[in-house]
Structures are given as structure tokens and as C-alpha cells.
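Lab notes, practical 5.
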Amino acid sequence: MFDRIGRVVTRRPVLVVVTWVLLVALAGTAALWGFGQGGLFDRMKTSDFVVPGSQSEKVSELTSGNGTDDAGTTSTVVVSGLDLTAEPTAVADFANGHRSLLEVQGVDSVVDPFALPDPTSEEARALMSTSGDGYVAVVALVDDAGTEEGDAAQVALAGAVDSYRDALREDFPGAEVQQVSEHVISEAILDQVRHDLVAGELVGLPVAALIMVIVFGGLLAAGMPLVAAVCAIGVGTGALWVATFATGIDSFILNVVSIIGVALSIDYGLLVVSRFREETKGLHPGAGGVGDSATGGEAGGAEGSAVGLAGSAPERAGIAAAVRRSVATAGRTVTFSAVTIAFAMVGLLVMRTHVLRTIGLGGMLVTLLALLASVTLVPALLTLLGGRIVRPSPVTRVPGLGRLVAAVGDSSGDDGFFSRLARRVHARPWWVMGASALVLVAMALPLKGLELRNNFTDYIPAGTQLRAAFDTVQADYPALAVPSVQAVADMPVNGTQDLVEQVRDIPGVEDVRVAELGSDPSMSVVDVRVDASDPVGEEVTDVMLAMRDLDAGQGWWVGGGAALQYDFTHALVHDAPAALAIVAAAVLVLLFLMTGSLLVPVKALIINSLSLLASLGLTTLVFEHGLFGVPRTQGLETFIVACMVAFGFGLAMDYEVFLLARIKEYWDQGLDNDTAVERGLQRSGRIITSAAAIIIAVFIGFTAGQMLAIKQIGVALAIMVATDATLTRLLLVPATMTLLGRWNWWAPAPLRRLHERFGLHE
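Output from the prediction step:
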């Protein structure tokens, strides 16, 4: 199959490149402008961590649009920086004189404390800051956000708030006005996601490009994996735009797709280009050695169509043959890797939460696109430009850079640093295996204190006026603050007295408010406030669980932020065994089909799991103590841990396949186990460490943004790749393969026959 792909690509390279260009242009147009249907950012939504069938989902559904807590049609205008004690009359005069500024088209009503008949009433005091430094105006809109009229009203209100702020500062210099609503928060999060995406790529990709120039010793070869990455991500975003018409697409998916797409495209492109460089070693302009071979003669049909290819006919034939051989070997390897990673993503599809399933779909999509680009686009570019790539690059003539390229460049023989490292491992395999395992276990120890978080308010961009206004509402306006726990009782308000008393008796409860459910007057909403600094911390969770244990006698559902986090975490734990079983089965089957061994897949599963746990433990330690300049947090985002397990395990298998493919290649040539390990590590070690360095730069680049979740996944995957590409792949794996010897390739007779019939062979 891969030989046929190589034939098609080398015979029609221009057609392949043009096809990709058209796909990227079409997908880019859809993602940016949407053909009149709204671009990708316009159609995405903010995170939805609701677990289907949970109590928190029930409460969310019942209270959505109930008239008393309808964040979609109500906006809070927070006015701060005033002194209500010293200037009460002046503040009231301003509010009464400028209230009309907020009464724009689409606004149903504007209520501030000075608009009420009695400014000293409880209702009026609820709209005044408990700190005495401001007030709020509650603006009710006629239509929901998402409708044409509702969106127009949101735009008009945003402009009205700016005008209100300007007028306020004329009378009260230094005062601040900020709008807070679910719509405004969602827009801020989407803007931050967009900004972080650009910031991450601006930081990570130039560093990755520099490393690839050093690895390949030339700009053309270095640029090919990056071109593949851009194309895979571009087409992927267009596919996500199409998906928005069928399901809700979470805003974080684009960042995740970008991170994984860049990483895998670079990995796969690097492997294919490196194999091409290896296959063309010794090929110079005018040389006919490769072209005269049988393989080169078969590839001669590519000459006419390889437009722009420099050099003689034998050289062009030799390059086409090298491309075909690269697709047949490296293409096979990256296909194994991509299929394994795709199955790791399948583990996310069995999760009940929508956000994890959509992230899994996005990850699978970009993985397959990265594979497709590596076995079609990159070989096509190599066919067209290979004549220039095999020649010495001007980069090597730059003083100092040429020596660096020679030291770490991708061309290598059968003997070098990595083969010498393998021989040292052969000499003391027990010591190397024991020391490596101990280090990994020590790294995993912080997992004992891992706390999983899932709080929507954590995503409001830190350090912004919106964040300050939201925190002000939470601290100074108890009646308007998001309740610590929110419950719905299937009874009217006048029948909730006994239930409310039971809630008030729960330790930690500070205040309980009961209101009629707007959408159903026969039901009641119970808002509970807990005096706790962390809205989803242990104190609030304990109150929430105690409320769930109450016997209400009728329908009683308890939700809120802590409940959402609790339900999400428990759903993740409940669904994890099935997800992990799918991943384990896929790894065992695919590696067996590739190697014909029973022990190698089992060993890979154990070692990669240990590497993953170690990386997750170190990530926990980094964020728990705020090391290396990252923000100190109270835990890791729950969905980030799920993505870390799926993507991290997939990337670990990426390098496992890279290494095993070369070792198995030498084993099949008749070399003994230790020699096969030495040569396989020598040929793949440089690729693995180079690819790791490149994608670590990409992952770290994504920490340049402000979104905490993206910082966490960037750091987590960077640690995972660094650990796997060094300690695990260069030391632990060779040590275990040394100890197992010929047993590495053992399988029972029935499985051997199965592999002979169904196994994947070159």
C-alpha cells in the first residue's frame, strides 16, 4: 500500500500540492468567514462540563431562562470607584440623569438602586456595594443572545456601557464601569482563546523552525514539516467549522487541535524527511548510482511530472526512488503511530461529557490529517525540491552554524552517540532499568496530592476589568453573586420552610434564599451561600453533598459549580476503565501486528503508563508550587488531565513506534538483538530527541498566553515528551530489550501464524 502511495505521489507531485493548497484555501475561508454563516470563532461556544443524567445537569436545565437567574438575557453593569457615604446625592443625581443611556434598542428595563421608590429598601441595598464604593444596574434584554435581535441588543448595550462610563468619569474621575453577563464572559473567553492561539504559535513555531534548520542543515528541508503542520491545522479548522452545524464545538478544541496538529505534523514530517535524507546519502548532482538501480528505474516515470526538479535524469530518478522508499518505510511507521494515537483518542469518545467527546473527535481528526500530509504532501514536496535538499545548504557555510549542524544534524551512520549509549546500557542493563524506574516512580509521587478542578469562573481572563468586576459582584453584592450551591425543589416556595431549615442547619451555610422558578411556579429555586474562598473547594463540596443527602420528600436536585465539578470528576473516574481498556487493546493489537511479538506490546504498555504517571506527577508538582514561572493553582483542570492521558499516551506511543520500527527492521535483516537495538537507537534516537526538542518548544510556546487550561496542557505535554524522549526511550526501553534478548520477539505458535497471515510487513 505504501509503495503504491509513493508511486502516485512521485508521478503526480504537482497535483498533490495543488490539491492541498485548494483544501487549505477552502477550509481557511470557511473557518475565517464561514461563507455567510459565521466563522469558526463565531460558531464556537464556551466550555460545557455538564454530565448528562446528573443532578447538576437537571438544575442547569431547570434554571436556564427561569427569569430569576437568566444570565443570557440579563446583564449587570457594575459601577465602582465611588464613595456612596460622602456623595450619596451626587451619585443618585448622576444615576437618575443618565439611566437613559443604557435604555437602548432591545433593552426591556434598567434597574439601579436609585430607580426604586425607596432607596433604603432591602431591594435597593442589594444593588449597592457592601463596601460602599459603588452600585450596579441590572439591565434586562428582550431577546436571548444567539438570536439576531438579541445579538444586536448585546452590541448596542456594549456601546451604551462605554457612553455611561465616559459620562460617569466626567463627574467622578477614576470611576469604572464594567458589564458582567454570561454573554460578555463567553466573548471574553473566546477572545482570550483566539489571542492565546496566535501568541502560542508566534512563540513556538519560530523556535521550532530554528531547531529544524539546525537538525536538517537547510531551510527547505526544515520548512516541509512546518508546511505540513500549517496545512493539517488549516484543513482541520475547516472541518471543525463544518462540525459546528451538527454539534456544539467547545472553544478550547481549537487550541488542542493546534497543539496536537503541530506536534504530530512535525514528528511525522521530520521522520519522513530524515528517512529521505538517509536514502539519498551519497547522491550528488549528476550521479547515477541510485538512478541506475532497479528501484530507481521504476521511479523514472516521475521525471516528466516532477516539474521544477533540478539535476540530471538519473538524479531525478534517484530522488523519486528515495521518496518512494521513504514512504514505504517512514510512511508505514507514521501510519502505525497515527492509528495508535487515533485509538487513544477513541478513549475520550466513551466519556459521557460533551467537551471530552468533541476534543477526542478533534484530536482524531487532526491526527489523521497530520498523517495524510506526511505521506502525501511532504513526499510531493520532496519529489519537487529533493534535488536542492540533497545539495549542501548555504546555512552550513554560516560561521559557527555549520559546525553545529554537523554535530546534531540528521545524517548519521550506524555508529555514533546513540549506538554508544546503547552499548553502555547493554553493559549494565539492571542498573539502568532500576535507576530509570526509580526516577519515574519518584516523579509520580506528587499524584497523591492531585486535586481535580472544573470551575467555569477560572476561565475568565485574569487581570482584566471583567475579572475585577466579576469578583466585585461576588464579594460585594451577595444577592447577585453566583450561589455556592443552587438547588431546585419540586414544591412551591411556601412549602419549602422545613427543607430550607434543614439546609440552614448544614455546617458552613451562611445564607439561604428561596425564589419561585420562573418557568414553573410550582417549583422553587434554593440559592445557598457558603463562606469559602474557593467556590468549588472542599467546604462548598461538603455542603453540596450534605444537601444531596437531605430527604426533601419530593423532587430535589442539587447543582451549582461545586456540583458540576463533583459530577464531572466522578463521571471521568467511572468512564476511565472503559477508555483505558480501549487504548490498551489498541496498543496490544497494533504493536503485535507491527512486530509479531507478544512481549514488546505488553512492555510498551507498562513502560508508557509509568512514563505518563511520572509526567503527570511532575506537572502536579509544578503547578502546586508555581515552579518555573507558571501560576500557582489549587489543582489541575479535570478535562486537562483526561486530555493529558489520551494525548500523552499517544505521543509516547509515537516515539515507541519510531524506535521499534527501526529495531525491528534490523532484526528482520538477521542482526542479533543487541546490535539491532544499537543500530535502531542510533538511527531513530536523533530523530526522537530532535522531534522532542521541536515540539517541546511548540508546547512551551502555548504557555505564553493567559488561559490557565492551555498553560496546563502545554506544560503537561512538554514534560511528557521530555521525559519520554530521554529517560524512557533512550535508557529504560533499551535496558529492558537488552534483558529480554531474543524473548523480545517471542510469540506463541498460534500468534506467530496469525501474524504471518494478518501482520503488517514492508
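Observations recorded by the TA: The first strand starts at residue 74 and ends at 80. Strands lie at 74-80, 107-111, 134-141, 176-180, 452-453, 485-489, 509-516, 524-530, 556-559, 636-637.
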